[in-house]
Every structure is written in C-alpha cells, then in structure tokens.
Amino acid sequence: MSKKFIMLSLSAAALAITLNTSAFAAGNAAAGKTKSAACAACHNADGNSTNPTWPKLAGQHEKYITKQLMDFKKGKMRKDPLMVGMVAALSPTDMQDLAAYYSSKKMSAGSADKKLVELGGKIYRGGNAAAGVAACMSCHGPSGKGNPMANFPAVAGQHSAYLVKALNDFKTSARTNDAGKMMQNIAAKMTAKEIKAVASYLQGLK
To answer: Which residue intervals define the domain Cytochrome c in the entry (predicted)?
Structure first.
C-alpha cells in the first residue's frame, strides 16, 4: 500500500470527523422504549430486525440514529417512503429518546458467506489502492464498531442486504447525507462484487 494512499485515507477520515462533530443532546432510553412501539413492526422490540432489508438499530450509536431520523424528516438527503411517514410526527426529543433506547440494546450476531470473506475482509481492512478506495476500517474501526465521536456508524453484524442497498444508494447519490460526500466518493469506486463482499464480511464481523 503506497504512502500516498495511506495519507489519502487518513485525510478523508479527518475531514469527516471535522464535518460530523456537532452539539448533541442525549436522549432518555426509558422514554424511548415506550415510544418505540410503532418502530417494532419493522425493527423488532429490541432493534434487531429479522427482515434483512431493514437495518438493525440495536447497539447503533445514539448520535448516528438521531441524525438519520432527522435526515429522513428533512427528506432531502435521505429518502424512504416508509420512514417518511414514521418520522413525520416525531419531535427532536422523540428522536433522541428512540436513539438512546436502541443504542442501549445489543446487536445480534450474523454470519458471512465463506466465498466472500476473503475479498470483503481485504477491502474492509486495506481498501483498493488501484481504484482509490480507502480502507473501511480507517473510519469504522478494525472490529466494525464505528466511532461515536465522529458519528461513524457501527457496521459489524449489520444485515448484508441492507448494507448493499446503503452502499448502492451512496454510489448512485440516491442518498447524500454523508459528510463531505465521503461515502458517495468511496462507493462510486467500488464494483458490485466488492460491495457484496464487504457487506457479507461485515454481517459476520463480531
């Protein structure tokens, strides 16, 4: 791996940290549990959805969940027909409480496709210098736990189907709520095979 590529990865991570750092008010997990009744239909009571196209919320960083809910409500940078209706009546306090509740739960473990683990792990840990794809772990960490201070989400154990959709949405700019277009720029340089492999690798990462 070239020194230039390593510096590029570190610079991208530093930029995203700067753009993602903002004031944040913690929510009330007990209140969030009560308010989560409607969310349970898709995400389950403990935040571990069984439908692989819907993300697991359990164990996700509180600040990250809050931001996603706010972005859904704004409806510009992140859009989803189902979520638009769900967030319509939520206040900022409601969002913070829901985020506090789900972040207090533990994400269930998943498994990876053995045929995709090698490629997925290679891209996640080292990127693809030839294509200009930075190592995913430079922001999401070696174990995929993310970085709550920088608002980088936890990705270990997440459904691969959901991750594939998320990366493809960034790739096509259907989703644009990433700081400094960081994820859009990375996903745009990834092949369909690489996206599928990384997503599968992360589903099995513990």
So the answer is: 27-106, 115-206
Q: Could you please state the CATH topology (level 3) that the domain comprising 29-103 is classified under.
A: Cytochrome Bc1 Complex; Chain D, domain 2 (1.10.760)
Written as one letter, the residue type at 125 is: R
Is-contact 104 97, C-beta < 8 A? no
Alpha-carbon distance of 187 to 6, in angstroms, equals 18
The Cα 29–Cα 129 span in angstroms is: 42
Instruction: Report the percentage of the chain scoring pLDDT > 70.
Output: 88
Q: Which two tokens stand for residue 6?
A: 């390593």
Rounded Cα gap, residues 163 and 54, in angstroms: 10
What is the three-class DSSP state of 147? strand
Q: Tell me: the pLDDT tens digits for 127-152? A: 999 999 999 999 999 999 999 999 99
Provide the 8-state DSSP code for 152.
Answer: B
